[in-house]
Amino acid sequence: GTTLKASAAEKGRYFGAAVATGKLSNSQYVGILNSEFNSVTPENEMKWDATERSQGQFSYTGGDRLVSHAQANGMSVRGHALLWHAQQPPWAQGMSGTALRNAAINHVTQVATHFRGKIYAWDVVNEAFADGGSGGRRDSNLQRTGNDWIEAAFRAARAADPGAKLCYNDYNTDGINAKSTGIYNMVRDFKSRGVPIDCVGFQSHLGTTLAGDYQANLQRFADLGVDVQITELDVMTGSNQANIYGSVTRACMAVSRCTGITTWGVRDSDSWRGSDNALLFDGSGNKKAAYTSVLNALNGG
Ligand code: G3I
């Protein structure tokens, strides 16, 4: 193929980008998006603070706009993210106990129901594990409602949208380490007990080196019987950027259950990483060396 999306599709995969809905009116941005990508993830528009600003008052303007753009252009949608310790509305940040648990599960049910049938995969729970060597859960208001909050969220999401793949999504999981092993053990436990989980997202916000066991880590999750996806890929600028992009792409292509790759934005100027210049297109919309490296890897090079 000669584009990211065509080359990925030839291998049965998607190639996606995180989209800030406000940029859909920028012709350069949307031109690249529509020609190169066939999956979108809302960068912020489906998060809790955006969709339930006051308790019980739901608004889906940005998410709906992105879904219609996707449907009009043959793109699938990754929903992001139903529950997360960050970007909670202020009213939820101050809650705890049963009240917070009920509010959180209601949030999952309402949002997944609104978008039912339109989402390829949901990040049901985002970033619930701690960094460092513990391998345990991150402390948060949600975690303090009880260790079973994650499985309760997955069950609610399955009931609301049985057709969506349900993912757990996290960062600093780029190799076999304490954090990724903690998640691995949770997924294994969920599969053994019939908790509905279909996929694990590896955000892959990367620096100047890539873990040597990146592919092996994806494979061990796939071997548990879940799909894996690269969900928020961006890589620090520098002499290794194109190589790392190529290696990540080849790793996904080598794991049959790796169903797609998403970069966390389109142009360097769209990235949360600012001067890291971490994406595949420069601020003027030109293809970078990293783009060529990804395209070649998608095409088997
Ligand atoms: O929309 C408001 C605007 O009204 C206000 O004036 C302005 C002032 O700060 O803030 C705007 O909201 C910002 C929002 O992005 C939209 O631009 C928030 O402050 C800012 O915190 C928010 O950042 C997002 C960040 O998640 C929040 O944690 C980034 O865009 C987004 O790229 C980033 O994405 C996360 C993933 O969801 C999860 N994984 C890590 C990844 C990178 O941090």
Structural class: alpha/beta
Taking Cα atoms only, what radius of gyration do you get, to the nearest Å? 18 Å
Give the SSE order as H and E letters: HEHEHHEHHEHEHEEHEHEH
Number of strands: 9
- What is the mean pLDDT? 98
Spatial sequence of strands, sheet with the most strands: 1-2-3-4-5-6-8-9
Helix share of residues? 25-40%
Uncertain runs: none
Number of helices: 11
The rough form would be described as: globular
* End-to-end C-alpha gap: 12 Å
Largest sheet: 8 strands, parallel, barrel
Ligand species = ligand G3I
Catalytic activity: Endohydrolysis of (1->4)-beta-D-xylosidic linkages in xylans
Family: Belongs to the glycosyl hydrolase 10 (cellulase F) family.
Domain GH10: 1-297
EC number: 3.2.1.8
Structural account:
The protein is α/β, with parallel strands linked by helices and 301 residues long. 39% of the residues lie in helices and 17% in strands. It has eleven helices and nine strands. Strands 1-2-3-4-5-6-8-9 form an eight-stranded parallel barrel, surrounded by six helices. Strand 8, helix 10 and strand 9 form a beta-alpha-beta unit. Helix 10 runs parallel beside helix 11. The longest helix is centred in the middle third of the chain and has 18 residues. Bound molecules: ligand G3I. Its EC number is 3.2.1.8.
